[in-house]
Prior knowledge:
By secondary structure, this protein is an alpha+beta fold. It folds into two domains: 2-67, Arc Repressor Mutant, subunit A, CATH 1.10.10.10; 103-236, Endonuclease, Chain A (2-Layer Sandwich). Helices cover 50% and strands 22% of the residues. Helix 2 crosses helix 4 and helix 5 (69-99) runs antiparallel to helix 9 (222-236). It starts with a helix and ends with a helix.
Amino acid sequence: MERLMGIGLTKTESRIYIALLEGASDAKRLSQGAQVPYSKIHTLLRKLEGKGLAREKKGRPALYEGVEPREAFEKYQKRLTEDMARRVVQAEQALQAVAMVGETEKPDIWIIKGQEEILRKAYEALNGAKDGVKLALPVVPELALAAFLPIMTRLHAEKVSLKLLLSKGVDAEVLGRLGELAEIGLRDRMFGGGLIVDDREALLVIGSEGTDLSLAIWSSHSGLVDLAKAYFDYLWHPEG
């Protein structure tokens, strides 16, 4: 199940797919076997069908079966590749829009160097969040943890949406503390990280797991914010 979640399936989708591979089943029995509320089972089955992992066999009642893994994941991988190619084109278009900005529009784009300066800017942006925060960290420095936890505690109490992406190697105790405050997503590896606040400003951190966070780009330009959102959403839901 963990490996299925690693390629973008949710925990519930993974349970359903595994149950389907054990044999064709109708929605009611599948709901019971996979421990999924019946009110959600049809929606989840449609999602799995859309990903090419399940198919419906007509009948009364309709039966569902899992697509054989080799066939299913060959198509699934192709779909992910095509989706990533589409996102790359969108990123290129966003950056071209930034490059072509004329004198009438001067977007705020700052280059920030040094871990302390990056954390200071992240603290400032995070502290001003009103609606939602998306935070991706390939590493979790102690300095960042000490600075962010009090703000995240306040935002959690204020019902601000918090989504946090971390590498799977993060310390279990740290993961537990953060998991009480935010919705957590884990990935095998992240190339860079960042922070998106209220979908209006973004801090893009250059670096990867095991490296120092020493260079970042902050911007309130809509093109760069959209680029950051697209990358975060891809990491959060690689299947699109």
